[in-house]
Specification:
Layout (H helix, E strand, L loop, with lengths): L5 E7 L3 H12 L6 E7 L6 H9 L5 E5 L6 H9 L8 E4 L5 E2 L3 H11 L3 E10 L2 E3 L9 E2 L1 H10 L19 E3 H6 L12 H9 L4 E12 L6 H4 L5 H17 L2 H25 L3 H13 L6 H21 L1 H9 L2
Parallel strand pairs: 1-2, 1-4, 2-3, 6-10
Antiparallel strand pairs: 4-9, 5-10, 6-7, 6-9, 8-10
Length: about 325
């Protein structure tokens, strides 16, 4: 076929609720020259049966069943091991996500037009919000190193967030050769930002493409990995870890020092909130061990100072807004 061959993969664990919709979104793509690998990670629900039922009807769909249960990142890597050596592009689709019909067509079209592109992204519907914005229209090709630099620098010291153009694995298309050259592809030391780390790695080697269209949908629900990790706030630590690993590569020394200072200011505010809220031991253990691993152990003097300032601010607010404080306590 004239269309370049695309490998699409879906790692799944107990995803029966949305898996059929996910598979249907691949089958109904306007782009048709693809193979689809679904890797079941010892699901205890009907995920495997659902995947097999589609494979029986479409020879482009192949189902793989792990003999042993794997950690999430390991299962992602196992899924990518199945892609064909003949594929030019690779796309991951989470089992509870969807591709809009023109997704693969538009992403491949842009990548084919500009061979320097290694990653293609687009606007993504994340729950009910549009994400992956921030890049100027109508420009579609950007320096990989510059996109990584902007992402690492974040938007402001207060929001502490990254320029969010990568989205989730569902949001992007990758050049398959780059994926095959990095084994394992996803770095298992990360969990919350494992896909973002992969993008930072690839952008050392290639440019970044962006389609100014809404092409994917990611579903957030209470059982999602994102939701379950909020208890420990793994995200704040892993974003710091990313900065420590890739900041020296993409940022000037002044930019890196400034961004690291901003990150640590936010981190200590979070730790002070944990201290004042009496967070359980598992939260403290996670962050103490993590920061020690980065050679940035908690400075207790600084932490207590931040906590005292927070207490003082709350006291001033209580005196200045007694009615609002009373209503807040009443509603707890």
């Amino acid at each position: 076929m004239a269309e370049p061959f695309v490998s699409i993969v879906t790692p799944v664990y107990n995803g029966q609720k949305y898996l059929a919709e996910c598979i249907e979104s691949v089958i109904t793509q306007t782009y048709q020259n693809w193979e689809y690998h679904i890797t079941d990670n010892c699901s205890t629900d009907d995920s495997l049966k659902i995947a097999q039922s589609y494979a029986e009807k479409d020879q482009r769909i192949q189902v793989h069943s792990n003999k042993d249960f794997l950690a999430m990142v390991d299962n992602f890597n196992r899924s990518l091991e199945h892609i064909s050596p003949a594929s030019k592009y690779c796309k991951v689709v989470h089992a509870d996500d969807l591709l809009l019909p023109a997704c693969v067509t538009e992403m491949v079209s842009l990548a084919e037009k500009y061979p320097s592109i290694g990653i293609v992204s687009a606007y993504a519907l994340d729950g009910v919000r549009i994400k992956c914005d921030g890049l100027p229209y109508p420009t579609s090709v950007f320096s990989g190193k510059e996109v990584a630099r902007m992402s690492l620098m974040g938007k402001s010291p207060e929001d502490g967030g990254f320029l969010f153009v990568f989205g989730s694995p569902t949001s992007i298309l990758m050049r398959a050769g780059l994926v095959r050259d990095r084994i394992p592809f996803y770095n298992r030391k990360y969990h919350q930002v494992v896909d973002q780390e992969a993008c930072y790695y690839l952008l050392q080697l290639s440019d970044f493409g962006f389609v100014h269209q809404l092409l994917t949908y990611s579903r957030l629900h209470e059982n999602s990995t994102t939701s379950s990790s909020q208890l420990l706030n793994k995200l704040i630590f892993e974003e710091l870890e990313l900065l420590k690993e890739y900041g020296p590569i993409y940022l000037t020394q002044d930019e890196y020092d400034k961004r690291l200072k901003q990150r640590m200011t936010l981190y200590y505010r979070f730790l002070a909130d944990c201290l004042l809220a009496g967070k359980e031991k598992t939260v403290w253990t996670y962050h103490k061990q993590g920061l020690a691993k980065l050679n940035m152990p908690i400075c207790w003097t600084k932490l207590f100072g931040v906590a005292v300032r927070k207490l003082a601010h709350r006291a001033i607010y209580t005196i200045s807004h007694p009615k609002a404080t009373f209503n807040g306590l009443k509603n707890k």
